Amino acid sequence: MAAAVPTVSVPLSNSKFFNWIKAALAVFYTKEEIEPVVIDEVKYFQQNCLHTISSSNSLPAGSTCSKCCTENLIVCPTNRICNVNRGKCYYHKNVATQFRPSGCPNKICHNLKSEIEKAHRYHGPSYKNTDATKWCSNAWEIAKCYLPPDGYKDVSNASETNFNGIISVIINHKGFEAKIKDDLSKKNNIFDKGRDVGKTVRHSPNLEVEDTDLTQYFTILNNILTDPGFVAMNKSPNNAIQKLAKLQSDDLIIGKDVVRKVLDDVGKTIQEQIRNEMDVYKQKTEERKLELINSVNLKIKDIEEKGNVSLAKLKSSIDAFETKVTESIQEIDSRTRKGIETIESVTNDGVQNVKEEKENAIKEIQKAAEKCKTIL
Hints:
Elements: H1 15-56, H2 70-73, E1 84-85, E2 88-89, H3 109-118, H4 139-143, H5 163-172, H6 190-202, H7 211-225, H8 228-233, H9 240-248, E3 253-255, H10 256-276, H11 280-302, E4 308-310, H12 311-349, H13 354-375
Helix pairs in contact: 1-5, 1-6, 1-7, 1-9, 1-10, 5-6, 6-7, 7-9, 10-11, 12-13
């Protein structure tokens, strides 16, 4: 009797996966709305600090410095940043990167570092992320001090920073606490909950979201967008609230590039997890997620309409793609079973051309596999 062949499952358009697409888009549009607010606040903080430092040190208006690297400002050793091992620190690795006890020669950078620390809710800026030589020229390098400690060193602006990072600036930078109505010092404030939504969607094990969870995610993100303090700071709203409402009803017209950007963003996270993941089982799970994202990206590319497409149309296109995948999987299962039966039959019956028959059966299996690859 032929051995059982496991059936492969590719759950593209089931409702839980489509819920995940909607949740990821909701996070994307929320980030798109809050990003300009965060940029404005960080720029204000940068300029206000530089003005105060110049005035306090009798420096000419508009004074800046680009000569101090971050290492010059960090005492050695500093917990979670650098440690001396056998008399050598790999963070302060040479003469140019040694800590300067005398401070910035232009009297700016060490004072700016003090302002950054005072403005951090937990007094623990992420100095590993930032380049102090750019603090005076690029406000986002200051914002990076309020991001999580790892994974943001190479981002140079807000658009390259993910939702988790943008939310972290709001939570960690004290400049927002007097402007947001919700109490940012308390656990589970609306932005804390929003950050959890972003993490959950981004790191979903199977790229699936339950109906009840999706409803909760939309509620949390709407709470962020309707906070009176946030509304007051939002000088140029892009109507994310309306977009979220239309997302829930599948009526939103979206650009295909937006969907691809959402998927690519999660894809980058998965690739990073695969590189860092030591557990083989978890790595295989992440690889399956990445295959799924790549499959959907290919389908989006094949959508015939130019420009924008409705969420409902996107789902219809993915449905059609899933039908092709299912048919291909059924074909490869069928041919595999026939191939195994042929191999077992010629082996049991002692036919003279056993080798040729086996090879033909294997070729049939390979043909089915190759056909499946062209569809995926």
